[in-house]
Structures are given as structure tokens and as C-alpha cells.
């Protein structure tokens, strides 16, 4: 990981608690994310990892706690605001338009950057036309970056799982995010696909300086590519630090990694 | 050889490039798809960039006589680099881009490479991995800067940086390049291509400007190629065929080459470009047909009926119409109708609507396959040649196509058959020598200047050359009957379900075979029958698959009996291999030819089991993954007996 440096704290989560009725999903969790770093959230099933991501981009609103993003303090995020401020994400269960081509799916990632009016777009004239060319250029750069030229025109539903995951990443990248939230980007992939995905995540982080927050089950992957790791268990934070620190934290070992094997 | 000799002003490739920049400067020379759009370079732009690149290389210290390693997919700037090296009197040495670092090491050491121009980070990483063992390597230039930001080694250069340096030098020394090109001689080595290493270690084949230009001129005249042809350049640059078609012929005739976006997009790119001149090994034609067959089986009933009917018409008269032979009026009408409804759209889907001439070589092509393409009006022809002869020995003339021959000797080439059946050739296209291997050169070229091809063959009554097998592969069964393994394997491989086959029988009492199933075709076949399988090994071991393959083997046996002379070569026992034969495991060469000796050694237990009459055999084999790691696969391989037929001992 030559030359990668983490900068200032850009996202600070303070004492976040989230309940669904009587179920405590997250309890008093605080951690921060620095600019340009790869930050992993790990934990056993039901530990509250996805909830945490949903809090960051405003899908869930925590009952308690504060979120400081780029120095601006607020009680909760809103999804559209999060998107407008440069937060993009992928989902644990792929959320793509199955009947649409890969190209069109990635194009939807540009939606927040489109300014032409509905009418202009409908008749494909003036500003709409100019914008479309610009967006297509950007989308093609992403396609080139993720090496998916060969499926450009293929409907997403016909693609194997690993490629769909890559298309989802492409759509998130098309939004030119400053922060990328990845919910289990490698779940269900074979070794080779995982290696590819790791490479792409590191490349994104390196080339565009994108801050990455990711949830992942594959411990090998997490320890290899993350700068810092947060460990959750039953909605509580039980560890936070570099991969090495987390690996040697006894609480983490007993809760998550289990007995050494 | 008057018809193939070039005038002095056009007798090296850099001079040819200069000529095209003058004569057709604005015309397209190269295209490459980038960011979804075909980018174009005219001859003038290509010549300019080649000049900049050459001057940039000179600035780095590249001198006359140096070798420039070129590693990567077909990229315009890599082709330009070849011409750039030649402009300075250097020799480009293209390497197979999918070779692992270890395999590259030998060639890089052997050629004494000081300068390498590679495509991207992947190739740079490979070179860095072995750089410690390459003391001669001084500079590495890369074409694609992606991922290269943190590489700080001073000997790494972005090609843009090199072009910039070259531009400055061009300005400061405007006469430098022209004088370098003027010094170049027609009998200088223009390129060094390494043999694939089917037999032992790779050897560097030194081919002169003369050799490649006469081979290209001969081919261009033979097929009346013009400056308006379009060709898709997608085969490895290190392969002699690509160098002949995409470099030598393109520079001689002045036509455009098109580089695909990536290896996986070739089919789409083919359709978009619609080449007029096309080259592909039989494997590619086979894959295309397999895909068509699979898709037709999934099509609706009406479409299937239409397809079958008109393909029947095409089989009956398509090839004759193509060859200009007499065909009845009703057939002509039906064929025209078929072209409108089925054949035309099919050709369009294949990207072959505009093809005027298509060639295949490298391995034998199945008669059904060959007939299929010719029947739909694609002028598919075979050629014969090897790296040492610029892939230019025999060509099939239009209208004189025979399925089982490779055609007549090409213009300017002399072919003769030695007493042991080996094919000997002589002509301007012959290699100058093997690089620093006078021993090998002396072995390959005899006292009268004939090159020993190592292939066994004979001329038929019409003067067409027929190839039987590699001269050294032709063996004898224990009873003395001739055993030509390639011949049998090719027959097997003509079935869409069989991807590879290896036949054994030399000095044995019977012929046995290994079969490798085609996962695409057999997988689809299994799906349609509701046979569940978990992967290659599982599918290969299915009883149903064995029955399917048994049918193929027995059909081959029937054919062999019908051919009389080879009745003894019927396959008595066979097995279906549990893993795919793979160049990464050294079982195939990079051009995907079977390495018989290596396989016999690696799978010795299986061969023993075949001949010992066992019905199953346990085997464990090592496999190498793409990233260089190794693993093991184990399987209990079943062995089956195939039905053989009594030989019809014909009189006469």
C-alpha cells in the first residue's frame, strides 16, 4: 500500500443509537472516518453493520447521536443530501435494474449531475444532448476502469452474480463520489472474482482518492485492504483500530473470530 | 522472383510507411476502440507517431542492432513501436502477452533485451518480477499509465513522456530519422519471432525486411488485396500470422488495421468493423459455429425450420455458387431467397457480411466446418506456412478449394517433397537464421538452401499439397500399420462436444485416446437434458457424457474403416479427462497445440490404465491458476471400450 496517506476526519459518528421498536440495532456507537482511508466495519450476522451504513447515508435515522460530515453537524442524514454531498453506495442484495443494459444502469448513477429539464431530455435537444455526451464519456471511463467493456450492452439480468456486483460498483463510481459505502462487495464471489474486486477497490481509493467504508465478511480481504477496522457485536462497538490491533484484541477474538483454529 | 521483389525505395517497412504517409496520408491506417468509440489514426499520423517514438527511443539510448521487446494485446502504439524500432535499425521482438513471467524470462535473456515496450501495469509487474535475472534490461516503456502512479523506478517510462521527448528531438535534429531510415537495408532483420516451443526451447527466428515484404507482396497480389481492405487485428502480435496480416501486408498494401477494445469484445468489434479480409485459426471458426448451433437449438420452431431448410440449400449449392461453378436456376433462386431470410442475417450476426477473403491455418479445419462457412458464401481458404517461412508457403487459389489440401505453392515459393515424405521449401521468405543458434540454423536449412518444415505431406494430381502430420509424429503401430495421431485427433475434434483429444498408439498394439469435452457445448447439451452438474470434472465424469462421447468415437472409427488404409488406427479405448488441457499447465503450447510428449509423461498412470484394461483409474494432477499459484485436482477417471469395426480389406 505504497504512498497512501489518510487525511483529516471527514465523517464523525458520535454516540449513535438506533432502535426499531424495542429492538436495539445500534447502541451508543462512535467512530470516525478519515479522508482517503479504507475503513472496514466487521462483525457477526446481525451485529448492525448494514444498519450503520444506512445511518451514514440517511436511510435510517438514529434516535440518538450526532453525525458530523465535512465539519457540518446534524442529527441525521437524508439519502438525497448524502448523494448530493458525494456519498455513493452499493447494496448487499444487488439493487440494479435487471431489464436495462449495463450502460443504462451505470448512466443512472449520473442522475444527480443531470440538469436538463424533463422536456429537453424528452426531445433530446440542446442542453440535454450536450449533457448526455458528457455523462456518456464519464460512464465510459468507468466502464474502462472496471474492465466491463464486453458487457456494455448486455441486460444486467443476464449477467453472473460477480459481474452484477461490479456493475453496481460502476454505477456508484459514475456519481464521482468522495465517499463510497460498500455493503459486502465480495459476498458470494469466488477467489478470482474477490481478487479482482479487491484490486478495483484499491484502485478506486488510490486513483480517485475516494474514501471507502466497507462491510465484509471475508476476514482475509478486510485485513489486507483496510487501513482501520471497526468491530461491532450485538449493536455495540467492541473494537476499533488497525487490522493488527483488532486482530490481537481479546474481546474481538472471542466475539467474532471465535476460538483460534 | 520478379513478382515479389520490391523496388529499392520501398524495400524496408519504415520506407513503406513513409510512402503511405505521402501517397494516402489522410486515409485511415489504424483504429482502436476506446471509451466505446472507434478512434482513428491516418497514415500521416501513424508515421508522425512512429517518428516521435523512434526518436524517443534513440534518446533513451536505443541503437542500431538493439532488440526491442514488445509485450501486450494488439494496440496501435505497439504496432507503431515495431516500425519505430525498425526505423532505427533495431529489431522488434514481440512476446506472447499471456505468458507468465518465467516463460518470458527465457526469451528476454536469449534476445539480450535492453529495451522493452509493454502494454500495461500487468506486463510491467511481470518484468519487474524477473528483472533481477535480466541484467541487460535497462528501460521499460508502458503504453497504459493506469495504476502506474506509485511506480517510481527511474527505468520506467510512460509512452507519452517518450513521445514528448521524441518530438523535441525531431525538432532539434530534423534529419536524424530520415538518415537512420536511409541507412536501413532490405536484408536487415526486420523482426524476430520466437517459435512456440512445441519442440524444446523457443528459438528466435530472424526474418528480414526482404522476407516479410516478399511474402506480403506475394499474398497481396495472389488475393488482389487493395488499400481499401479492413482487417481486425486480434491474434497475438508474437504470432507470425498476425505479423504477416496486420503488419507486413497492411504496410505493403496500405490497408487499415482495427484493434479490438479488449479480448472479450472481439465478437462485438468484429460486427462493428465488418472486415473485408479476415484471418482466424480453426478454433475461432469452430467457436463461432458452436455458438450459432447452440443459439439455433434454443430458437423457436419456425426459425429452426427455416434455418435447417436454407442451410440445406446452402450446403447443396452455396460453395459452387461461390466458386462460379454451374448451378441450376431453381437452386440459385432458393439460395437467393435463403440469403435474404437466413444466410444474410446470419453473416451479419457473425460480423462477416463484408468478408471478401478469409483464411485459416495453424491446425486442420474440420470438413463440416469448412463447408459450412463456404456454403454461406464466405470465401474461406486455407494456407500453409510456419514462423520460419513468414507463414507463406501454400495458398488455396480462388475457385480451386479442396477440403483436405492446403493449396498450391504460393508465388515465388518452391516446394519439394523429400524421400521420407518431409516437405521442403525454398524462397525469398525464408528465415535468415535462428538467433545466435548456428547449430539449429544448420539443422533446419539443408545444403541446397531448402528449409526442412518437419511436416509430412504429398502433392495430389492437381498439384495441391496435402499435409498428413508432423513428420516425427507419424508413428507405427505394433503391427507396422501407419499411425498418424494428429489425423485421428482432428477427426475427434471436429465434433462440437470435443475440445481436445490426444491419441496414443506408437509401438502399441492398439490406439487409445484422451478426450477433453467442450464445456460450453456439452454443458448446454446437459442442461437441455436436465442433467445437473457442479463443474468441469463432475460433468466430464457423467455416464450420459460418456455415452455421448462414445458415440463420437465410434463414428470416427467408422470413418477410419471407410478410409481403408487407416482401419488399424481405430480407437479401442478412451477416457474423458477430468481437467481441461491448458497452456498454463504446459499441456498445450501458447498457440494451443497439444504437447503430446509432456502429456504422455504427466498422465502416464492413465495411459497405463488404458492399455492394462482397467475400467477406472485414480489420478492427482497439479494445476496452475492464472495468478501463478498452484493447486491439485484429483479424480477417479473412468475408462470405456469403444466399438470397432472389422477392416474392409479392399483389393487394389
UniProtKB/TrEMBL annotation, chain A:
SMART domains (alphabetical): AAA
Coiled coil: none
Keyword ATP-binding among UniProt keywords: yes
Keyword tags: ATP-binding, Cell membrane, Membrane, Nucleotide-binding, Transport
Gene Ontology terms, MF aspect: ATP binding; ATP hydrolysis activity
UniProt domain ABC transporter: residue ranges: 11-259
InterPro entries: AAA+_ATPase, ABC_AA/LPS_Transport, ABC_transporter-like_ATP-bd, BCA_ABC_TP_C, P-loop_NTPase
CDD domains: ABC_Mj1267_LivG_branched
GO cellular component: plasma membrane
Protein name, entry field: ATP-binding cassette domain-containing protein
UniProtKB/TrEMBL annotation, chain B:
Signal peptide: none
SUPFAM superfamilies: Acetyl-CoA synthetase-like
GO MF term (any one): ATP binding
Alphabetical list of InterPro entries matching this protein: AMP-binding_CS, AMP-dep_synth/lig_dom, ANL_N_sf
Domain AMP-dependent synthetase/ligase: 21-435
Nucleotide-binding recorded as keyword: yes
Keyword Amino-acid biosynthesis: no
Protein name: AMP-binding protein
Amino acid at each position: 500500500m505504497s504512498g497512501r496517506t489518510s487525511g483529516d476526519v471527514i465523517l464523525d459518528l458520535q454516540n449513535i443509537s438506533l432502535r426499531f421498536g424495542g429492538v436495539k440495532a445500534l447502541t451508543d456507537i462512535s467512530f470516525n472516518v478519515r479522508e482517503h482511508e479504507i475503513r472496514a466495519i466487521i462483525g457477526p450476522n446481525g451485529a448492525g453493520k448494514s444498519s450503520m451504513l444506512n445511518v451514514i447515508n440517511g436511510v435510517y435515522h438514529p434516535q440518538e447521536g450526532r453525525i458530523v460530515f465535512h465539519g457540518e453537524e446534524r442529527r441525521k442524514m437524508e439519502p438525497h443530501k448524502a448523494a448530493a454531498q458525494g456519498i455513493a453506495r452499493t447494496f448487499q442484495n444487488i439493487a440494479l435494474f435487471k431489464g436495462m443494459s449495463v450502460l443504462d444502469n451505470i448512466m443512472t448513477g449520473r442522475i444527480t449531475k443531470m440538469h436538463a429539464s424533463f422536456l429537453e431530455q424528452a426531445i433530446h435537444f440542446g442542453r440535454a444532448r450536450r449533457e448526455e455526451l458528457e455523462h456518456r464519456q464519464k460512464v465510459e471511463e468507468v466502464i474502462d476502469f472496471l474492465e466491463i467493456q464486453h458487457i456494455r450492452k448486455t441486460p444486467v439480468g443476464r449477467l453472473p452474480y460477480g459481474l452484477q456486483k461490479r456493475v453496481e460498483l460502476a454505477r456508484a463510481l459514475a456519481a464521482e463520489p468522495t465517499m463510497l459505502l460498500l455493503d459486502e462487495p465480495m459476498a458470494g464471489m469466488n477467489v478470482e472474482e474477490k481478487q479482482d474486486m479487491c484490486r478495483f477497490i484499491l484502485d478506486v481509493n488510490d486513483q480517485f482518492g475516494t474514501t471507502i467504508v466497507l462491510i465484509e465478511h471475508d476476514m482475509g480481504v478486510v485485513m489486507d485492504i483496510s487501513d482501520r477496522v471497526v468491530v461491532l457485536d450485538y449493536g455495540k462497538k467492541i473494537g476499533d483500530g488497525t487490522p493488527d490491533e483488532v486482530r490481537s484484541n481479546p474481546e474481538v477474538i472471542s466475539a467474532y473470530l471465535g476460538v483460534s483454529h | 522472383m520478379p513478382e515479389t521483389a520490391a523496388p529499392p525505395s520501398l524495400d524496408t517497412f519504415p520506407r513503406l510507411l513513409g510512402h503511405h504517409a505521402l501517397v494516402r496520408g489522410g486515409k485511415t491506417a489504424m483504429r482502436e476502440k476506446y471509451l466505446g468509440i472507434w478512434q482513428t489514426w491516418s497514415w500521416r499520423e501513424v508515421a508522425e507517431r512512429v517518428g516521435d517514438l523512434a526518436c524517443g527511443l534513440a534518446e533513451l539510448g536505443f541503437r542500431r542492432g538493439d532488440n526491442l521487446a514488445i509485450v501486450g494485446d494488439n494496440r496501435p502504439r505497439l504496432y507503431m513501436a515495431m516500425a519505430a524500432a525498425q526505423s532505427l535499425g533495431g529489431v522488434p521482438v514481440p512476446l506472447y502477452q499471456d505468458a507468465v513471467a518465467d516463460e518470458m524470462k527465457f526469451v528476454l535473456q536469449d534476445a539480450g533485451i535492453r529495451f522493452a515496450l509493454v502494454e500495461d501495469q500487468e506486463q510491467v509487474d511481470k518484468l519487474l518480477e524477473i528483472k533481477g535475472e535480466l541484467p541487460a534490461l535497462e528501460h521499460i516503456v508502458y503504453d497504459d499509465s493506469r495504476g502506474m502512479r506509485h511506480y517510481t523506478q527511474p527505468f520506467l517510462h510512460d509512452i507519452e513522456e517518450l513521445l514528448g521527448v521524441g518530438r523535441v528531438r525531431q525538432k532539434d535534429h530534423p534529419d536524424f530519422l530520415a538518415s537512420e531510415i536511409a541507412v536501413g537495408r532490405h536484408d536487415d532483420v526486420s523482426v524476430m519471432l520466437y517459435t512456440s516451443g512445441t519442440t524444446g526451447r523457443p528459438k528466435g527466428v530472424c526474418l528480414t525486411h526482404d522476407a516479410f515484404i516478399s511474402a506480403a507482396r506475394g499474398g497481396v497480389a495472389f488475393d488482389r488485396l487493395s488499400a481499401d481492405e479492413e482487417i481486425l487485428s486480434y491474434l497475438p502480435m508474437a504470432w507470425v500470422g498476425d505479423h504477416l496480416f496486420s503488419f507486413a501486408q497492411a504496410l505493403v498494401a496500405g490497408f487499415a488495421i482495427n484493434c479490438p477494445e479488449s479480448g472479450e469484445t472481439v465478437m462485438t468489434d468484429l460486427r462493428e468493423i465488418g472486415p473485408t479480409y479476415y484471418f482466424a485459426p480453426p478454433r475461432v471458426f469452430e467457436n463461432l459455429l458452436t455458438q450459432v448451433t447452440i443459439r439455433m437449438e434454443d430458437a423457436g420452431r419456425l426459425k429452426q425450420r427455416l434455418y435447417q431448410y436454407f442451410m440445406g440449400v446452402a450446403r447443396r449449392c452455396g460453395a459452387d455458387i461461390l466458386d462460379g461453378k454451374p448451378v441450376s436456376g431453381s437452386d440459385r433462386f432458393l439460395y437467393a431467397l435463403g440469403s435474404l431470410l437466413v444466410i444474410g442475417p446470419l453473416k451479419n450476426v457473425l460480423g462477416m457480411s463484408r468478408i471478401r477473403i478469409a483464411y485459416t491455418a495453424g491446425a486442420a479445419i474440420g470438413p463440416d466446418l469448412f463447408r459450412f462457412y463456404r456454403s454461406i458464401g464466405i470465401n474461406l481458404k486455407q494456407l500453409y506456412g510456419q514462423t520460419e517461412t513468414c507463414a507463406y508457403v501454400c495458398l488455396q487459389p480462388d475457385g480451386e478449394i479442396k477440403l483436405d489440401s492446403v493449396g498450391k505453392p504460393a508465388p515465388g515459393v518452391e516446394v519439394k517433397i523429400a524421400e521420407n515424405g518431409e516437405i521442403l521449401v525454398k524462397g525469398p521468405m525464408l528465415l535468415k537464421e535462428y538467433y545466435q543458434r548456428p547449430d539449429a540454423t544448420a539443422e533446419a536449412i539443408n545444403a541446397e538452401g531448402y528449409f526442412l518444415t518437419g511436416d509430412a505431406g504429398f502433392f495430389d494430381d492437381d498439384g495441391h499439397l496435402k499435409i498428413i502430420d508432423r513428420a516425427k509424429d507419424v508413428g507405427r503401430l505394433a503391427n507396422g500399420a501407419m499411425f498418424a495421431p494428429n489425423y485421428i485427433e482432428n477427426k475427434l475434434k471436429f465434433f462440437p462436444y470435443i475440445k481436445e483429444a490426444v491419441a496414443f498408439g506408437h509401438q502399441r498394439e492398439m490406439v487409445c485416446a484422451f478426450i477433453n469435452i467442450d464445456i460450453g457445448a456439452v454443458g448446454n447439451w446437459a442442461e437441455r437434458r436436465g442433467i445437473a452438474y457442479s463443474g468441469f470434472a463432475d460433468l466430464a465424469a457423467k455416464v450420459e457424457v460418456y455415452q455421448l462421447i462414445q458415440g463420437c468415437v465410434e463414428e470416427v472409427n467408422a470413418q477410419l474403416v471407410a478410409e481403408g488404409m487407416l482401419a488399424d488406427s481405430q480407437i479401442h479405448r478412451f477416457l474423458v479427462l477430468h481437467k481441461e488441457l491448458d497452456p498454463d499447465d504446459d499441456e498445450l503450447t501458447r498457440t494451443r497445440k497439444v504437447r503430446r510428449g509432456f502429456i504422455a509423461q504427466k498422465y502416464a498412470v492413465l495411459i497405463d490404465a488404458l492399455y492394462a484394461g482397467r475400467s477406472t483409474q485414480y489420478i492427482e494432477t497439479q494445476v496452475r491458476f492464472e495468478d501463478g499459484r498452484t493447486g491439485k485436482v484429483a479424480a477417479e477417471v473412468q475408462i470405456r471400450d469403444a466399438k470397432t469395426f472389422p477392416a474392409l480389406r479392399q483389393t487394389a
